[in-house]
Design brief:
Pfam families: EntA_Immun. By secondary structure, the chain is mostly helical. The protein contains 4 helices and no strands. It has one domain: de novo design (two linked rop proteins) (Up-down Bundle), CATH 1.20.1440. The radius of gyration is 14 Å and the shape is globular. The mean pLDDT is about 85.
Length: about 90
């Protein structure tokens, strides 16, 4: 499965979950729509993580939202533009 399809499937599963808040749903839906309309995946996921982080700092992220945010961070650990150069950084021995 390609990256875009994988992310869209992940987001669709979240949108089908009735336990997330309406605010969380709007944030995930916005990301889903943008990726579906061929906007840059990295920037969409980066924005999604920022918005979810903001909710978390305000303690407005539900336990389900935290679970999805954690899973998103696991499957997409680095979404910044500079992350594409990570392979050039020497690992410490």
């Amino acid at each position: 499965m390609r990256r875009k399809e994988k992310i869209l499937t992940f987001l669709a599963d979240i949108l089908n979950d009735h336990e997330i808040s309406s605010t969380e749903r709007e944030i995930f839906e916005d990301c889903f729509t943008k990726i579906n309309h061929n906007e840059d995946i990295n920037s969409c996921i980066f924005k999604l993580k920022q918005e979810l982080s903001l909710l978390a700092t305000k303690q407005q992220l539900s336990s389900k939202g935290v679970s999805y945010f954690t899973e998103l961070s696991r499957i997409e650990p680095s979404t910044s533009v500079s992350s594409m150069w990570n392979f050039l950084v020497r690992r410490k021995k």
